[in-house]
Amino acid sequence: AKKLPGTASLHYDASMAANGTEHAHLGAELREALENDQLFLLYQPIVSLDDGRIMGSEALIRWAHPTRGTCGPDSFIPVAERTGLIVPLGQWVMRTAFAQLASWISEHGDEAPGVMNVNVSARDLREPEFVDGMAALLKEFGLAPDRIVVEVTETMALEPGQSIINLHGLRDLGVRVSLDDFGTGHSTLTLLHECPIDEIKLDRSFTQAQVDGRPPVSAAVIHLAQVLGLHPVAEGVETAEQAEQLLALGYIAAQGYYFAPPMPADRFGELLRESGSL
Ligand code: C2E
Ligand code: CA
Ligand code: CA
Ligand code: CA
Fold first, then answer.
1. Which intervals hold domain EAL (predicted)?
2. Atom 37 of ligand 1 has which residue's CA nearest to it?
C-alpha cells in the first residue's frame, strides 16, 4: 500500500461556531453555496485489507468558501441542520455521488468502482420522502441498489418513527445500511439484531487504540460482526501495523490515510484506471 499526499481541509475557528451571529451569517452563505456550486465531494477509497483492492468509496463533503478556503463538514453541517438547509444539501450530496458512481461505472466498467458510501444526517433520515427519493435517483442513474451504502449513526438507527421506517424501506429497496462510528454511541445487541443494518464501521478511536496497548475493542467488534453477519469496515487506519492487526483479526475492509486520504473525483478515477488497488 502506498500513501498519497494529504488533502488539506481548513476549518472554521471553533470560537466562530460558538457565535450566534456568525451562525446566521454562515446559514445565508451556505444557501448561496448550494446555489452557486461551491460545494463539492471528495471520495476516500475503501480497500480490501488483504490485497489493497478498491472495494468502494465514501463521499465526504467540502465547501470551497470564496474567502475562507476549503471548509470541512464539521464546520457547516451543524449549521445546515439548524437552518433546515441540510435537506437540500443532503439531496445534492446524494445526486452528486450517484452521478459520480454512474460515471465511473461507464468509464471503468461495472466492477471497478465498487460501492458508494454516503453519509446522511438525522434530519434526512426523518424525511417521509427519503426512500422514494432514493429509489428515483437509483432509477435516474441506472444504479443497482446494492451499489449504495447509507451511513447512519447509532443514535439515528435508534430513533423510533419515520427513521426506522426509512431504514426498513432502504432494506426493502436493496440499499445497504452502515452503522458509522461504531462503538462510540449507544449500540445494544438488540439494535444490531433488530435494525436492518448490513455493515458496521469501527470508529477510528478503536482502530487506533490497538497499538496503545488498550483493550482490543476491535477484536470484540469483529466477533460481533461475524456472529451477526455484518460486513466489518475499520475507519481511520493510519499505519501499516494497524492494517496488519486488523487483517489478522478478520477485518475485511478498511479506510484511512495509510491507504489514501479523501480525494477529488478525477484522482479517484486515475486510481481506477491505474490498477484499482492501493
Ligand atoms: P465520518 O463519516 O466518520 O467520516 C470520516 C472522517 O474521518 C472524514 O472527515 C475523513 O476525512 C476522516 N478520515 C479519513 N481517514 C482518516 C484517518 O486515517 N485518520 C483520521 N484522523 N481521519 C480520517 P471529514 O471528511 O472531515 O468528515 C467529518 C464528518 O462529517 C464525517 O465523519 C461525517 O459524519 C460528516 N460528513 C461528511 N460528509 C458528509 C455529508 O455529505 N453529509 C453529512 N450529513 N455528513 C457528512
Ligand atoms: Ca461516514
Ligand atoms: Ca465514521
Ligand atoms: Ca463521524
1. 23-276
2. 60
180 lines ligand 1 (CB under 6 A): yes
- Residue-wise pLDDT for 95-137, tens only, equals 999 999 999 999 999 999 999 999 999 999 999 999 999 999 9
Q: Give yes or no for a contact between 57 and 268, defined as CB atoms under 8 angstroms apart.
A: yes
The answer to whether the CB of 121 is under 6 A from ligand 1 is yes
Give the closest residue (by CA) to ligand 1 atom 8. 60
- The residues, any chain, with a CB within 8 Å of residue 42's CB and separated by 6 or more, are 7, 59, 60, 61, 62, 262, 263, 264
State the ipTM, two decimals.
Answer: 0.98
* DSSP element (H, E) containing 234: strand 231-234
Bridge pairing between strands 39-48 and 253-254: antiparallel
What is the 60 CA–ligand 1 centroid distance (Å)?
A: 6
- pLDDT tens digits, 146-196: 999 999 999 898 888 999 999 999 999 999 999 999 988 877 788 888 889
Q: How far is the CA of 205 from the centre of ligand 2 (A)?
A: 14
Segments in the chain forming alpha helices (H): 14-17, 20-35, 77-83, 86-108, 122-125, 130-141, 154-157, 162-173, 189-194, 204-209, 217-228, 240-249, 265-274
